[in-house]
Fold these 2 entries.
Entry 1:
Amino acid sequence: MTPQSGPTATALPPFSQRLRERSMRMHQDAEGSTYLAALTAGQLDLTAYAALVSQHAVIYQALERLTADLADDPIAGRFAFPELARRPHLEADLAFLAARGIPTAAPTEATTRYAERLTELATWPAGFVAHHYVRYLGDLSGGQAIGRLIATAYGLVPGGDGVRFYVFDDVKPKPFKDNYRLLLDAMPLDEHEQEEVLDEVLLAYKFNVDVLASLAEQVLPQYPQVVS
Ligand code: HEM
């Protein structure tokens, strides 16, 4: 045995680190969304914003139904944090927008496909975790800045009516994310299963990129001042 061939030489980095590194490219694609850029730059209006809230409502309904269905699962159940629940916040945002005369938008095809995939994961708890990670850790990261930008761009109060989706009342993002990464690292997955979850994380990003692209296609043509 050479000095380099012991267990430490072959050990993989922590799973949370592998997830972040493997998905960096897809994260850049998500960040680069033309719809998000126009929305956060204040080039759209509340109707265009409502289109995003409406997609989130469908996606989180599927995600949080799955969270509830898998609450007793030894892998998925560890991620069932009630304080993450976004559905009540999305319903409040949609109600606020409706009171302003702004209707809920229909789900795009990309949103429907995303929700269908989530439904399929009832039989694969580790795959559910892949999606849980992409949405909630994203919401607690870049999502926090996105929420503030949207509020100030469209005359809303940051953290108030219309942008409650971005508010986590009982979560401090930094310690929560640190603990979440420890939970990811502790998942009892062999290398093959880790690879499958890594692939599902990339798929989850792809669904999100597709949803944002579907909004760009549907919404942006109505805002000719937007340079895309
Ligand atoms: C303008 C758009 C976006 C910006 C500026 C942004 C920015 C960021 C930043 C700065 C972090 C690192 C935060 C930290 O480590 O504490 C982060 C993490 C993350 N973002 Fe985004 N993001 C954006 C969009 C998205 C989207 C659309 C998704 C997917 C739906 C997403 C998913 C994630 C995830 C899962 C993480 C956690 C990565 C990890 O540490 O494992 N982000 N984002």
Entry 2:
Amino acid sequence: MDIYINKIHYPVNNLGAGTRLGIWFQGCPIRCPGCVNPDTWEAAEEYRLDYTEFINTLVNFENLQAADGVTITGGEPFAQPEALFELTRFLRNFIKGDILVYSGYAYKELKKKHAGILKAIDVLISEPFIESAGDRLLWRGSDNQKIRLLSKRAAAVYGRGIDRAEWKGRRMQFSLVGDCLYMIGIPGRGDMEKLYEYMKMRGIDCEHP
Ligand code: SF4
């Protein structure tokens, strides 16, 4: 089996509780207007990995065990249901922390088609991204999206803390890996344009989609 992965990164501190490992799936057929991640839409050959090799990389990934949890985002993770199913089952048995998965599909649809995956994860943030719905909440692409706690572990970790954490507002994280600067998190409307403009003023030209 193959899996299309954009990147793995640790630490991630603005896509779920605590300090997390982030896994970005590559490929998204939904194509929401205003998506801030269009570079993750195409499941291009350069992102294809053998699933077993990917798991071996993950097992050897420094900090996987130390992470407070794993966040799986994209792209659209549920666009690769077999790989997502195997990955979430593997993580369930391998890590101590929570598994949080993002999706642009509606919960009703996911429940009908992917109940097995939902059983293996702790937290689901789902529903279509709607640009006009607002962008005040830290962990959601747009304010219409819902956070669902699907396990006892999720209730213990997130419980009533979601509102408190999310109303702190948007927060971007910058990580330099080799010569590549990663921007992690969900920017507010217009934030990226402002950032590119500011960097240009400082003489830095950014490559961006
Ligand atoms: S589901 Fe997510 S990655 Fe896909 S187009 Fe919508 S916002 Fe972008």
